[in-house]
Amino acid sequence: MNEPTTEGEETIILPTINTPRMPHAPQSRELVKTDTPARPDLPHATFGGYQRDAVDAYLIQLEDALQDARQHAQELTATVNDLHTQHALMEQQVENAREDSRINTARIAELAQERDQARHDAQNSIAAMAEEQQAFVNSCRKRGQQLMDKAQTEYDAKLKQAGIDAQHTIQDAKEEAESILASAKHTSQNILDAAKQKSEAIDQRGTQIIEQAKQTAANMIADAQKQQDDIRHECAQQVADAQQETEHYQQLRDHILGELNDIATRLNQLPRTAAHPSKQ
Predict the structure, then answer these.
(1) Any idea where the domains of the chain sit in the sequence?
(2) What is the pTM for the complete model shown?
(3) Does the pLDDT value for residue 201 go beyond 90?
C-alpha cells in the first residue's frame, strides 16, 4: 500500500517482486513453465541514489540468465518427450514379441496336433495293412488248401493208374503253397517295416519342429525383455538427470529473483527525500 504524500516531500514506494514457486518437474510434456515475471519498475534517482546504468546492466544480465535457463528447460522437456516416445515404442515391440510368442505357441499346438494325427494315421495305416496282409495270407492258405484238396482228389482218382505221378503232383502243390505263403509273409513284413519307419520319421520330425519353435519363441521373449529393461533403465536415468538439472535452474531462478527483491527492498530503504528534495 502506498503511503500518503506530504507537502515538501514525495513518497516513493518500490514494487516488491513476488517469487513464483516452480512445481516439481513431472514426467510429462512440459517440465518448466515459460511464464516470466514482469521486470520491476524501479525508480530512477536524480541524485544521491543508486547508479541507474549499473542497475539496468545487472537486470539485463539477470534477464539473460533467466532466458538461458528457460531455453535449457525447454530442451530438457523435448528430451524427456523423446524418451517417453522411445519407451512407448519399446512397449509396442514387447507387445509384438508377446503376440509372436502366442502365435508360436498356437503353431506348436497345431504341430503337436498334426504329429498326433500323423501318428494316428500311421497306426491306422499299419493296422489296415496288417489286416490286408492277414487277409492275403488267409487267402493264400485257403488257395493252398484248395490246391492240396484238389491234388488229393486227383491223387485219389489216379492212384490206381499212376501212383508216382500223383505223388509228384501232391509234392508240387505243397511246394507251391509253401512258396506262396513265404512270399506273402515276406511282403507283409516289408510293408510293416516300411510303415514303422515312416511313423518314426514323422514322430521325430514333429518333435524337432516343436523344439525349434519353443527355442525360437524363448529367444525372442528373452531378447525383447532385455531390450525393454535396458531402455527403461536408460529412460529412468535420463529423466532423473533432467529433473536434477531442472531443479538446479529453478534454484538459480529463485536465487536471482531473491536478489531482485533484495535490491528493491534496499531501494525502498533509501531516504525518501533522496530522489526529490524538499522545497525550501
Answers:
(1) 52-267
(2) 0.27
(3) no
